[in-house]
Amino acid sequence: MKFVCMKCESFMEFQKVENPAEQSLGVSFACPTCGAKVAMVTNAGETAMVQALGVKIGGRDAAAAPMELIRENLKENDGVKTPVVSATTQQAMLKEEMAKMTAAGGSSAPAGSCPFSSMVAKMQGGTIPASGTATAGGVAATPASSAMEWTKEARERIERVPSFMRPMIEMGVENYARKNGITTISLEVMEE
Amino acid sequence: MAEEKTLREILKKIKFSDDAQVMKQLVDQSIQVKVRMGYIRRKIVVMSGKGGVGKSTTTANLALAFARAGHTVGVLDVDLNGPCIPKMLGVTGSFEIRQEGAIPPVGPYGIKVASMDFFLTEKNTPVRWKGAMELSPIWLGMFEMNVIREFLADILWGELDYLIADLPPGASADKPPVIAGFLPELDGAIVVSTPSEVAKTVVRKSIVYAREIGIRVIGLVENMSGAICPSCQTPVPLFTEKNEGCEDIALDLDLPLLGKIPFDSQIAQACDRGIPLPLSHPTTKLFDGMVTQIESFLEKRTVSIGIH
Predict the structure, then answer these.
(1) In whole angstroms, what is the distance from residue A70 CA to residue A191 CA?
(2) Which residue among B10, B138, B146 sits closest to A53, beta carbon to beta carbon?
């Protein structure tokens, strides 16, 4: 599916995907000529259709991780376990993400967004509140591997990310924060 | 004021680029299945129109029989919501995720097993998906199709002689065509029925349906084919007075009756415990005999279509 800028007579370009509300995907496009922006918002059924297809909106930068569809969509509760991810795989995945981030340098990512934000948003499925409305509260315990502070809300959100991906996301968010002189990770920082 | 151009006119002038690459992603998914399945010599499904007839028991015991015959075997538990193959084969553990794929747990005789059960720790935990999949059967069906695709594409099966897929029940349910769609080179289906008229009525439909969607039916397995009296070892009919079996289906639909498995508490107990039946048990020998027939069927077909 494509959007056309009728004024400039050109296809709009994909910008980013996010979760603006529960069971909803927001996909943003911009006209490369005049810069006009439009966002498409899906309802629950349309969101489910995209998830059911097992495809990534905006295309993939890298091949899908093994069993990605099942691991991302299985409802987590007490009786569900996370498969073992080998140490070498974790390192390789982390290395790949870090390389992408370094290459992006914060500029080639979708306009105005951290390269990790859409990934974090996507991974959290339909549980994210309306973007940008959350406020930072008390400061939670700092991750063992980090010298950076995380707010309680930010910590709760990162805890919802599947454990095998969590270290990678944490590191990505913290690196982004360091580059921007941020010392406390809040929901706002994560959503940037 | 300039006249606004129609969309048709604009589209003629501009070049389409597929940013989303949805088709490419779907094609890539199919290619990955194709590549992974290329290492597997034979792919078989075990199916039935009727539930509770012993598909999983048949699958587990056929897998053991193929492995006893010296083959490398994998079992795919396609019953996503009622997975029981791991318990029947005594396999526990979980997938080990590596970059190149997911390593499946291994059971008796080196049988590799893939099942949703490996994502669950509690015996009471149902398989539940996030979002609308939980509420809408429409999306659930499509999503489960992709879960099966992921099992086929992402499991590091390695080189196998046989991959046996245990399908959930359903005469014309979505799983057989899904499997057939992903595996155009599927070697065939083993259909399981009991001698019950109720079961046979439904099983007939599933055989016809399977054939209509291009799945070759290798043969029929009659399960619970009478009981063996534990005291005097005399066969006792379970479903019909004269103990008629499934021969009528085999005759009417022109397919071999591969074997008649008696209802035997030892089989049930072996499955409950996840321990294979002893080699000397008559049912073990029955399944070994079925494997010989299936191999013969598949070899004949290979020769007849000129694949060497």
Answers:
(1) 25
(2) B146
